[in-house]
Automatic annotation (TrEMBL), chains A, B:
The keyword Membrane does not apply. CDD domains: HAD_L2-DEX. Keywords: Hydrolase. The keyword Hydrolase applies. It comes from the Bacteria. Pfam families: Hydrolase. InterPro entries: 2-HAD, HAD-like_sf, HAD-SF_hydro_IA, HAD_sf, PGP-like_dom2, S-2-haloacid_dehalogenase. Belongs to the HAD-like hydrolase superfamily. S-2-haloalkanoic acid dehalogenase family. GO terms for molecular function: hydrolase activity, acting on acid halide bonds, in C-halide compounds. Gene3D superfamilies: HAD superfamily/HAD-like, Putative phosphatase, domain 2. This is 2-haloacid dehalogenase.
Length: 230, 230
């Protein structure tokens, strides 16, 4: 594989959304809320909210706005209609403040020496930029949904990566912890690497250890760097 | 001024296009060519080539392709029809290999601590990414013409910066060595900082020392960092 650029799914693959959202929920809502359950419920509403954009029911809407809107439903379901609007706005920024898995910064730092690295996430640009600045993620540029106003797995998102990097799709490696993201990337000609993230869902729903259809399956970004000779 | 993000013109403002293009022309074409004159002629064809896209005469075309096409005219005018296509392709990459002015990396490094930094250039994403990796420019993301498929000074390019950074235009500072770029940014509500780059045209056409209409006029990115308290 002559890989020139790596593009990354972010939520679950690069960062621990469940732990980070729960931490911010505890900080802003206090100990009476089940913060991990709140994170799970918020995340459950993620795909359906994007589906409303993908189907055309909603015009293009950045993920921050989808998160803010679904948070109202999450808090209603959690019996917390009392939470003030400004606290809801602040809690929505939890998604900007997620911590990377421990192998991410060391792995990306090695990979950045000889490869172009970019997120290819459904997160909007401001979210991804805030997250990267806080966590020290060495992205070379920010690609993804908002740039093309389509959510994954729409083909437009995957196609934009080789187009904007001026590379053949076969020299771009999509890295994700989710098989369906890799399947969609592969359909557009990208190479694929699966990362096993057993803790994404708090250990309750453990994803498969490998993706037999991917070019590579690894357990960390450091192993990915090893495999690419970085 | 409560500035949260700085967006930068690149050619002439961040990097010395004339010196870099001449260096690559000398390397690839040998000493018989007047490398500085070649750089000047290539750059002269830059605005007219983008004008063909802005007017709708050409569909969206990334700057690399415009550069490659105008290079054929440059070499014809220079009496060098003999240059092989693969050398022309390689010479077009000169624009990916330009050196920053000496104050740029120290200034950006200070500014990056408390501000989001992004290029807002007519250069395509791959060009800007290659340049940044080679020169160590600490961009947080890459904005600019190719993202919105419009060339500056079209308003779409300026409007996309606050939109994608999720900031009010008045908290985004456009930095450029060219008054007309700042005028167009100001018309879209951005703040503006003028940088005096006396050597951009090899000292022959010296630009004004300040832009009286800009919020700030400085002589280096380090002075810009001083003025913003970075």
């Amino acid at each position: 594989m002559a890989i020139r650029a790596l593009v990354f799914d972010v939520f679950g693959t690069v960062v621990d959304w469940r732990g980070g959202v729960a931490r911010e929920a505890r900080r802003l809502l206090g100990p009476s809320v089940d913060a991990a359950a709140l994170a799970d419920d918020w995340r459950r509403r993620y795909v359906p909210s994007m589906e409303r954009v993908r189907s055309g029911e909603l015009p293009w809407t950045p993920l921050d706005a989808l998160h803010r809107s679904s948070l109202d439903d999450v808090l209603a379901a959690a019996g917390r209609p009392d939470v003030a609007p400004e606290v809801r706005d602040e809690l929505t920024l939890a998604w900007h403040r997620l911590d990377p898995w421990p192998d991410v910064v060391p792995g990306l730092t090695r990979l950045a020496r000889a490869h172009v690295l970019a997120p290819l996430s459904n997160g909007n640009v401001a979210l991804i930029v805030d997250m990267a600045k806080r966590a020290g993620l060495p992205w070379d540029c920010v690609l993804g949904a908002e740039i093309v106003q389509h959510y994954k797995p729409d083909p437009e998102v995957y196609d934009a990566a080789p187009r904007l990097l001026a590379l053949p799709p076969s020299s771009v490696l999509m890295v994700a912890a989710h098989v369906e993201d890799l399947t969609a990337a592969r359909a557009r000609g990208l190479r694929t690497a699966y990362v096993h993230r057993p803790d994404e869902f708090g250990g309750r729903a453990v994803p498969p250890e490998t993706d037999p259809d991917a070019d590579l399956s690894v357990r960390s970004f450091e192993e990915l760097a090893d495999r690419l000779g970085a």
